[in-house]
C-alpha cells in the first residue's frame, strides 16, 4: 500500500511539471504580442533547472506518512506515530517533488544584431542550438525564449 501511494504521488508530481522549452507556450501566452530580435548564438552551456517546490509533494508525503505512522503502536502511540510519519513523509515528498520535476536546461548566450549580448536559460532540446546558429529571441509578458 505504501509503495502504491508513493508511486501515485510521483506520477501526480510528474503530471504537474510544465515545460520551459522554447517550443512550448502556456495558454495565457497565446494571442499575446511578443517582440522579436535576431542574433547569433555565441555559446551554449548545459545547466540544470531546479524542480518545483509547490508544496504538493510535501502535502502528499505528509498524508501518506501520517497514515503509515498511525499504524504504529496503540492509543497515544498511534498519534505520535502519525505526527512523526507526517513530518517525515512531508520532507520526503518535498524532496521527491523537486527531484521528479528537475530538468536539464541550456544557458544560451546570444549576440543580438547591434552587438548587445544576452543570456537565456530554457529547457534543453538536445542539439537544438550551436555556436554560430542564427536565432530569434522572443520577448514579452515577462518571458524570453530563443527559437530558430
UniProtKB/TrEMBL annotation:
Pfam families, per database record: Rick_17kDa_Anti
Keyword Flavoprotein appears in the UniProt entry: no
Cleavable signal peptide: 1-21
One Gene Ontology cellular component annotation held by this UniProt entry: cell outer membrane
Membrane topology: Lipid-anchor
Keyword Transcription set for record: no
Superkingdom of source: Bacteria
Domain Glycine zipper 2TM residues, every copy: 57-96
Main location: membrane
Subcellular location: Cell outer membrane
InterPro entries associated with the record: Bact_OM_lipoprot/Surf_antigen, Gly_zipper_2TM_dom
Keyword vocabulary terms for this entry: Lipoprotein, Membrane, Palmitate, Signal
Name of the featured protein: Glycine zipper 2TM domain-containing protein
Organism: Dechloromonas denitrificans
Amino acid at each position: 500500500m505504501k509503495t502504491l501511494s508513493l508511486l501515485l504521488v510521483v506520477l501526480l508530481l510528474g503530471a504537474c511539471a510544465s515545460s520551459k522549452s522554447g517550443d512550448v507556450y502556456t495558454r495565457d501566452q497565446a494571442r499575446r504580442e511578443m517582440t522579436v530580435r535576431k542574433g547569433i548564438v555565441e555559446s551554449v552551456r548545459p545547466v540544470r533547472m531546479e524542480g518545483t517546490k509547490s508544496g504538493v509533494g510535501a502535502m502528499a508525503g505528509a498524508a501518506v506518512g501520517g497514515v503509515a505512522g498511525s499504524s504504529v503502536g496503540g492509543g497515544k502511540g498511534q498519534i505520535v506515530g502519525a505526527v512523526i510519519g507526517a513530518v517525515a513523509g512531508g520532507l520526503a515528498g518535498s524532496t521527491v517533488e523537486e527531484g521528479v520535476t528537475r530538468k536539464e536546461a541550456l544557458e544560451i548566450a546570444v549576440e543580438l544584431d547591434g552587438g548587445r549580448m544576452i543570456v537565456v536559460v530554457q529547457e534543453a532540446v538536445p542539439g537544438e542550438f550551436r555556436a554560430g546558429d542564427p536565432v530569434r529571441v522572443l520577448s514579452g509578458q515577462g518571458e524570453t525564449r530563443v527559437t530558430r
